Amino acid sequence: VLMKYGSDASVVDASELDGLFTAILSGPVLIEPQVWLPLIWGGEENDPEWESDEEFEQFMDLIAQHMNDIADRLNEYPDQFEPLFGLNTVDDQEFVVVEDWCCGYLKGVALGDWSSLPATLQPALAAIALHGKAENLAQLETLTPEAYEQSIEAIRPAAIALHAKWLLH
């Protein structure tokens, strides 16, 4: 559905949607669906013309289920929370793709006011932003394979720590 109705400005895949929802659920303020739903399509001007009411309802049910699953894991079972990273195969070797998830997360952050994030948690947000911002590509290319792997491994605990901060408030 994301590919069918997507545009250059829309959420590209389930990984980016997962990151978006994780940030929305982790932020300091409640973000209403009428705010984040148009973001999925790249703005209200790109809202889909659904083939049927059933197609729309099915999509809404699926994203509600996914968002509820993320919320349950973050709130009740953070040890079971796993970002939905993509996979890419090059020359029969499989690689984890985190950029879409991180980009989605940053889109979710942009919807709320995270300015009161304590300095102690800025590195957690930076760990996600490292892979979620195009301007960090040059920095990523300078990392050793070990440092690159460590930067990927830092994303999950960063997301959990950020969620825990706002959950307390």
What are its keywords?
single chain, 169 residues, mainly alpha, two-stranded antiparallel sheet, 9 helices, 2 strands
Topology, element by element:
Elements: H1 2-5, H2 14-26, H3 33-40, H4 53-76, E1 86-90, E2 93-97, H5 99-111, H6 122-132, H7 137-141, H8 145-153, H9 155-167
Antiparallel strand pairs: 1-2
Helix pairs in contact: 2-4, 2-5, 2-9, 5-6, 6-9
General description of the model:
The longest helix is centred in the middle third of the chain and has 24 residues, at 53-76. By secondary structure, the protein is mainly alpha-helical. It is built from nine helices and two strands; from the N terminus they run H-H-H-H-E-E-H-H-H-H-H. The termini are far apart. It has a two-stranded antiparallel sheet with strand order 1-2. It has helices spanning 2-5, 14-26, 33-40, 53-76, 99-111, 122-132, 137-141, 145-153, 155-167; strands at residues 86-90, 93-97.
- Structural category: mainly alpha
N-to-C terminal Cα separation, in Å? 35 Å
Number of helices, where a helix is a run of at least 4 consecutive DSSP H or I residues? 9
Q: State the low-pLDDT regions, or none.
A: none
Averaged pLDDT? 93
Fraction of residues in helix: 55-70%
Shape: globular
Strand content: 5-15%
Radius of gyration: 16 Å
Physical arrangement of strands within the biggest beta sheet: 1-2
Summarize the main sheet: 2 strands, antiparallel
Q: List the quaternary state of the chains.
A: single chain
Secondary-structure element string: HHHHEEHHHHH
How many strand elements? 2
